[in-house]
Amino acid sequence: MFRALRFPAVALAATLLIAAGPFNGAPLPPTPAPPAAGTVSDTYFGTTVPDPYRQFEDPKNPALLNYFKAQNAYTRSILDALPGRTALGARIAQLDGGSESLSDVTVTPGLRFYLKRPVGANTTSLYVRPAAGGAERLVLNPDRFTTGKNQHETIDFYSVSPDNRYVAAGVSEGGSEVEVTRVIEVASGRVLPDTIDRTPFIPPAWRSDSRSFFYFRTPKLPPNAPQSARDTNGVSRLHVLGRNPDRDPAVFGYQFDKHIPFAPEDAAQIVLTPGSRWAVCVIQHGVQNEFAAYAAPLSALTGTQHVAWRKIVSYGDDVTGLAVDGDFAYALTHRGASRYRIDVFSLQSSTAAHASVAVPQSANVIEAISLSRDALYTRELDRGVSRVRRFARSTAISDRLPSTHSGYGAGTMIALPYDGSVGELDTDPRVAGALLVEQGWTHSPLWYAADACGVLRDTGLRRASTVDYSDIMSTEVSAPSTDGTLVPLSIVTRKGTKHDGKHPTLLDGYGAYGYVISPSFLPTRLAWLERGGVFAECHPRGGGELGEAWHLGAHIATKQRTVDDFIGCAKYLILHGYTSPSHLAGMGTSAGGVTIGNAIIQQPGLFGAAIDNVGDTNGVRDEFAEGGPANIPEFGTNTDRVGFKALYETDAYVQMKPGVAYPAVLAITGANDPRVAPWIVAKFAAKLQASTISGKPVLVRVDFDAGHGLLGSSRAQAEAFTTDEYSFLFWQLGDPAFAYPGYVAPPTPSATP
């Protein structure tokens, strides 16, 4: 929360495309009809909003499950019949099979813990190895907790005890993110009897005794509780190994202290730092990046006495990151600094509101801060490229008051191997140096250790991918939006790609929460690129690529700008000859559903196809879903006029009109998705099937053992997802190797960029 084989190129003939012609081919088998549209409607501030598929929102109504089963069976019958799918699936498995994943590294004295999916493995497990190098050892394979042969488990978070003896890990089933915290003995792999359910999102904080920890737990819900009640009313508690969790005392949280504001949807994370006598509790208000925080002497958190928590950070301080150093705290803030600065204050006597500037705002966007034994590190963004700076501990403020601190100066920029993306920067205040991982659009991730001089060495934690990207290049450009704003656009192609407007092109876009979509290396993306495909990533307003001003540039009342920016990037690709409307597909995932959903509703002739991947396409009803209330700080609420207007105008389900030639759409959901309720995807797809007159398919893909997109998915699930995604797009964008037998796609209506 604070969370070498060389493969031959595909023959050139395989990249030739069929121009869309008159619709004179055989139609597809008829799509299973959704339930009849209803007559439900709501009125907000004088505006009536029809909701024809409201029945899908009732989890007790069999209509939703029946719709998903029938639609998924139909989708499988279509996609599995595409001639090129089998070969493509084999190629994707080949590309993916030689690669491993490694993430969530924890640095401790003497050891390195990490989540890893080895080459050939289907599941991501927890491993440990000596810091100096040597053989790794399996600590936990989460599938040991599976209860059915068609299910899988995922480690969503973990935390290591100070003595490295135990790990507390949050494990959930089928991507559900319904975490159960379990405790594992590192040396033996033995699972202790301690089992704590209803522990969402937040890693536990071990006390120095390594036999107890603080954790966040929500109450058991009654059978008739609304969907939106999940993960609410949580409380931070203290657990001692061997004690019944139901007897664990509260130390913070909902209704714990009437003097501390804590909303039902808030989450509390207690942060303990080695070498500090303070406990800090961070309150996260839904998805809001800015948080509030309180401090108390760690010795007071016994669970047997009142805790005099003192507020040290208010939401208005615009703090998004905090690092504790003894009696001081460093705060990452955008208050008066859109590209962020670092402030410092005393935990004993001051607050973030009265902090001194430690690192001033610069041309770079500071994304994160991290403290090691010998330095303060910053992860920064320089026009889309990651930078890492190191500020030596010799200039730290541990022994002087913030009021006399004169700042750090410029620090030292660490020389990275290439201009790419640093996704993690991991430190421990007991250990010198830092670990970081860098990757790029054409560079596979590698983990490096930075020493006291800022010099990097390859740790060997992860091997470089054997997939050959030497024929692939990436380009960074700027595309004009509707209002003239220049939007960053990343384009990945084969070298020598002709700008003849004939390439199948996939344009992805997100644009929410201030989240930055950084360059990423996907071995399986080569299956798209080597067939002449173009991949492009739009970085619209709403994201954080250019700082907090970029985030707030498309926020609640101005959310339409995210859509405008995405459309501007689509037009750029067409105008510059990468593609044409009949060969262009758009995709949005999660909050990106706002982006792609509105793009195809507002500009249907601009796209030949679209992928709505677990997309949030029904904003007006989102706050009634699981996880929905948490999104109010980002998108607004329909309980006030401004919020409703914003949600209404960018609700793709609501704004969809009948009798329009919409592009082909593949709508994807996971049955266990807790972030974007599956019924949101179902409502959008059902209405689209009833509304479009293009003759192009609207397919619904459901993974009944998956959650939010690929979060928590296995290797096999990810490969199947990518195979379906690319097969659908190659089919709809005109690759003859994927033509459905006897079917000729109707033409995409001409669109003038």
For this entry, give a set of tags:
four-stranded antiparallel sheet, eight-stranded mixed sheet, 38 strands, single chain, alpha+beta, 753 residues, Rossmann fold
What's this, in brief?
The chain is an alpha+beta fold. It has 12 helices and 38 strands. The chain is 16% helix and 31% strand.
Query: Could you tell me the strand content as a percent range?
Result: 25-35%
User: How many strand units?
Assistant: 38
Strands of the largest sheet, in order across it? 31-32-34-33-35-36-37-38
Report the helical percentage: 10-25%
Structural class: alpha+beta
Give the averaged pLDDT, no decimals.
92
Task: Based on Cα principal axes, name the global outline.
Answer: globular
Oligomer: single chain
CATH level-four homologous superfamily name of the domain at 472-724:
Alpha/Beta hydrolase fold, catalytic domain
Q: What does this protein look like?
A:
With 753 residues, the protein is α+β, with helices and mostly antiparallel strands. Among the domains are: 101-197; 472-724, 3-Layer(aba) Sandwich (Rossmann fold), CATH 3.40.50. Strands 31-32-34-33-35-36-37-38 form an 8-stranded mixed beta sheet, sandwiched between helices. The chain has a 4-stranded antiparallel beta sheet with strand order 3-4-5-6, with no helix packed on it. Helix 2 packs across helix 12 (715-732) and helix 5 (560-575) packs across helix 6 (592-602).
Write the layout of secondary structure elements.
Layout: E1 41-44, E2 47-50, H1 62-79, H2 85-97, E3 101-108, E4 111-117, E5 125-130, E6 137-140, E7 153-160, E8 166-173, E9 180-185, E10 191-196, E11 205-206, E12 212-217, E13 235-240, E14 250-253, E15 266-272, E16 278-285, E17 291-297, E18 310-313, E19 319-325, E20 328-333, E21 341-346, E22 356-359, E23 365-371, E24 375-382, E25 385-392, E26 412-413, E27 421-428, E28 431-439, E29 446-450, E30 456-458, E31 472-480, E32 486-494, E33 505-509, H3 526-529, E34 534-538, H4 548-552, H5 560-575, E35 584-589, H6 592-602, E36 609-613, H7 619-622, H8 632-635, H9 641-649, H10 652-655, E37 664-670, H11 678-691, E38 698-703, H12 715-732
Helix pairs in contact: 2-12, 5-6
